[in-house]
Amino acid sequence: MSAQKRSSKKKGTSDGNRYEEDFLKNLYATMYRIRQFEEQVFELYKLGLMPGLAHSYIGEEAVATGACAALQDRDYIVSTHRGHGHLIARGADTKKMMAEVLGKKDGYCKGKAGSMHIVALDKGILGANGIVGGGIPIATGAAYMAKYKDTKQVTVSFLGESATNEGTFHESLNMASAWDLPVVYVVENNRYGISVALDRVTKMQDIAVRAQAYGIGGVTIDGNDVLKVYETVKEAVASAREGQGPALIECKTYRFKGHHVGDPATQYRTREEEAFWKERCPLVCFRDYLIEKAGSDEKGIVALENAINDEIQEAIVFAKNSPYPDAVEAFEDIYFEGR
Amino acid sequence: MNQEQVREITYAQAVAEAIDEEMARDENVVLIGEDVGIIGGNFKATVGLRDKYGDWRVKDTPISESGIIGLGVGMAITGMRPVVEIMFSDFIALGMDQIANQAAKIRYMSGGQVKVPLTIRAAMGGGRSSAAQHSQSLHAWVAHVPGLKVALPSTAAELKGLLKTAIRDDNPVVFMEHKVEYNKKFPVPEGEYTIPFGKANVVREGDRLTIVATSNMVLKSLEAADKLGKEGIHVEVIDLRTLVPLDKQTMIGSVKKTGRLLIVDEGHLSFGAGAEIGMGIMEDVFYDLDFPMMRLGTEDCPIPFSPALEFPIIPDAKKIYEKAKMMAKR
Questions:
Q1: B161-183: b or e for each residue (b if 16 or more CB lie within 10 Å)?
Q2: B155–A contact, CB cutoff 8 A
Q3: Which domains does chain A have, with CATH numbers?
Q4: Contact A131 B102 (CB under 8 A)
Q5: In terms of domains, do B142 and B210 share one?
Q6: Domain residues for B300?
Q7: How many secondary structure helices (H) and strands (E) does chain B include?
Q8: Same domain for B157 and B59?
Q9: With bands split at pLDDT 50, 70 and 90, how would you rate the model's confidence at A148?
Q10: Does A111 touch chain B if contact means CB atoms closer than 8 Å?
Q11: Which residue has the higher pLDDT, B5 or A226?
């Protein structure tokens, strides 16, 4: 079944009032925080204040938010080049993130990572990664550690649909399944690897079918439905934690912007397709759900949004005020020198 | 070393002994790789470890070099101290992203938040009619990438001490073992010892010429030096032990004494370790040189299968002897 068909049943959200309002509002706050952070990064890019590039997570917020809500504090995630959303959903400090994006000394990685490679070990974030598929075996290794030491930690490996065509995807899922490692692979299928649509380079359009080849659970879900993502990942994480091995969850979603902030995405996809997905915006759909189905007060939501807008503005001020690193710091942290 | 306490074991046994001691010392040390478990490794360098430590600590893996190196990176940044075996060093090509872009970079890119105590062992070198995909000496590839350390042990005693240091190091180390040495016996001290990285070993003292060598070329250089010694030409032979970190001071001191430097390394000549070693100390020794620095290395062609083709392109004791003798002329 295609994502389009699934999404058209009911735009964006699961039915029923199964959750406390605070929990639902927290999910919304996280999604909104990601959206606002990304919008502001785009603005900084346009103003020429950001060195290099960034890969926008706008449109995919429900995946990171739902998946990370299903984790415990001590669990790990491994992220991708499109990683801001995963980091924020995991509770990373937007000030330190923004400072890193601007290449400043107070960034998470002291200006050595930039947008694409942020590590936040205190939040269990083992790293965004500039190499497509590069993080998949690393996530699997963290899971090997957890199994070997019986720590009951689970690792979520985020990856795009294009990363599933890298050899590391196969090698990692094969090992994780052979040894029942506690890792959940969350595939964000946004249909495009930079400019190349999945159906131009891959026969099967549902990545989840590949799970069968490894003898593990694999499902395709609406990645714009935050509660569906949460529920699906939660179940897979619980199973992995109990020693039942890995799972593959494919979240159909869409990146509203181009591949990175400098890509207008005009050559390889249609305006109609973009409009179709914007109708299914995970943020708008979930906001409507909160008001229409969960009984949230719109004023309260607006207040929440305003508070997050302020938070992101503070992050920008913090990042702008942070000094650039000293040139000599280029030579620090190459090797661990201590004991 | 106290000669009375020295016994003889093979280079392969030294690998197993070093890993065994480190596994006994630290439960975070695990060994993963193709065939390392039940059969004790393709080169029999890990025999007995699986029986002693079990399947989860000595893990036979699928043939997935990128996957298993990445597995090692993930384990290392979450508190373990993995040793990953890549059977033939040629196969690091399959795992090069995980070595060069992941293991080498994660500490740096995290601004020092994580460390990567990962040892990648691989068998290097020619001389076994293994042809072009199983005979290369690729240490210059990895030495070129900041963030990695690179060790090349010459004998079993060197291997044991250096491998223990590699495993205890909190940085990723590519540890190149020479495959023609595995079955050779060497005197190895009893008990625990380590050999620090970045300290070259002057294995033979001399005054007429300095030979700086790596790995198996140290032994071939010693053979050449013995022969030259009998002719009254006393050659100093330095075992570099590690390319990264590189002990320039020991080389500089030696070349200032002898005025002549021959570098012998099994990597291909062009853009190889020999070139970097020479240029690395050039400005410090240029005015002390009595003869241009020279290099011996594997010729710039793929390693051929037939012994009739293979041996002529790789340095040996005879070629080292001839080159050194020519250079040592007054």
A1: bbbbbbbbbbbbbbbbbbbbbbe
A2: no
A3: 20-322 (3.40.50.970)
A4: yes
A5: no
A6: 201-328
A7: 12, 14
A8: yes
A9: very high
A10: yes
A11: A226
